[in-house]
Amino acid sequence: MISRIDLRGDALPEGGALRDLLPRAEFDVEAALEKVRPICEDVHHRGTAALIEYAQKFDGVELSQVRVPAEDVKAALEQLDPAVRAALEESIRRARIVHRNQRRTEHTTQVVPGGTVTEKWVPVERVGLYAPGGRSVYPSSVVMNVVPAQEAGVESIALASPPQKEFGGLPHPTILAACALLGVDEVYAVGGAQAVAMFAHGTEDCLPANMVTGPGNIWVAAAKRYFTGKIGIDTEAGPTEIAVLADSTADPVHVAADLISQAEHDPMAAAVLVTDSAELADAVERELEPQVAATKHVEDRIKPALAGKQSAIVLVDSLEDGLKIVDAYGAEHLEIQTADAAAWAARVRNAGAIFVGPWAPVSLGDYCAGSNHVLPTGGCACHSSGLSVQSFLRGIHIVDYTRDALAEVTHHVVTLAEAEDLPAHGAALKARFGWKVPTQ
């Protein structure tokens, strides 16, 4: 059901050579880019008409408009299962607690007497958020995108999610209900690359956004790449990943359950166990069989994901080697199920989010830990962070110098300007002092 990679016995290679030994899903955004380019340009030129046409082509629904009426958003909340509503409200509450504490405050530094630099944090004016609607419905992604944007102070928030044939061309009602709970009333029944294009260019119905965030399929990722530079993006999210660093103290029932929990997302989802215990590896393999047989989405998602080349049990000589492996892999989600798990977790450098010990499974983070589940995939955790309040803020430096403070440093500025063969830069200062460098 899942392959093995045995890295015991020899010294582990470094850098890219080590990464090449590890399983990874193929996710060719560049190839998809050429296919989404004409869609994005069509939306640019034809606006809402193009969006309605693509809803028919890709989603099989006939729309007269793409903006979801406010009464449909409200009705979705009124009809929501009370238990689901309570769970969403708790998810929102916990996410607000965490994200509210991420907001940065303005800070002024006195560099010299009379010379200060203030850094202020300003939210982007408008964001377009994307909630997937393909194999599963993800109201949790609505929470994870909207809450940090709101806590950052973004004034204008719009959300797009694919139209669903079984719901009369509206996005899934649980998506709409989550929007209502969060106070988001600008919602569009638009999916895929065309949703990103709608936010990037704007249409007759939708104002352009400064930034687009939210997970999606390869077409959404390709559209984000296409518009990078015109709009801000969070990340080009690829298939979901879980890596588990475990030793002989780990419970194979827990480990197997957690690997399956991510495999049920998508046939390209990655599930990786890194362990120094062959006995644990054997026990997890034995445990996978009955747990997979007892759940849903077996043939179309879980079995292909576990059997794919992106998933494996990796055997290593020691947890030290295991730490090198998980740092090289840079998992979206990393569980540490070892003795003294917190100490090992503290040493990890590359991961989207780290889950410590047996009582912090990835599923908790997906919904109700308070953390954000929009995380870097495909090894991007070595240079990128998950979605947060900072994602929606821009730092702006405000420079305020007096005449004396400028005079004191002018000779250095002039020297550096001339060293770079940019004499007009120095002249901009000398003009303020009668074209002479002030005497020090």
Can you offer a commentary on this structure?
The chain has 440 residues and is an alpha/beta fold. It contains 17 helices and 14 strands. It has a six-stranded parallel β-sheet with strand order 1-11-10-9-12-13, with helices on both faces. A five-stranded parallel β-sheet has the order 6-5-4-7-8, with helices on both faces. It has a three-stranded antiparallel β-sheet with strand order 2-3-14. The model has no long low-confidence stretch (mean pLDDT 95).
Give me a quick take on this structure.
The chain has helices at residues 15-19, 29-46, 48-59, 70-78, 82-100, 139-152, 173-182, 192-201, 218-227, 252-263, 278-293, 298-307, 319-329, 341-347, 362-367, 403-419, 423-430, and strands spanning 4-6, 107-112, 115-123, 126-130, 156-161, 187-189, 211-213, 232-233, 241-246, 270-275, 312-315, 333-337, 353-356, 393-401. It is an alpha/beta fold and 440 residues long.
Strand order of the largest sheet: 1-11-10-9-12-13
Oligomeric state, counting identical vs distinct chains: single chain
Report the sheet-strand fraction: 15-25%
- Judged by helices, strands and strand pairing, the structural class is alpha/beta
Arithmetic mean of pLDDT:
95
Detail the poorly predicted runs: none
Secondary structure layout:
Elements: E1 4-6, H1 15-19, H2 29-46, H3 48-59, H4 70-78, H5 82-100, E2 107-112, E3 115-123, E4 126-130, H6 139-152, E5 156-161, H7 173-182, E6 187-189, H8 192-201, E7 211-213, H9 218-227, E8 232-233, E9 241-246, H10 252-263, E10 270-275, H11 278-293, H12 298-307, E11 312-315, H13 319-329, E12 333-337, H14 341-347, E13 353-356, H15 362-367, E14 393-401, H16 403-419, H17 423-430
Helix pairs in contact: 2-3, 2-8, 2-9, 4-7, 5-6, 5-7, 6-7, 8-9, 10-11, 10-12, 16-17
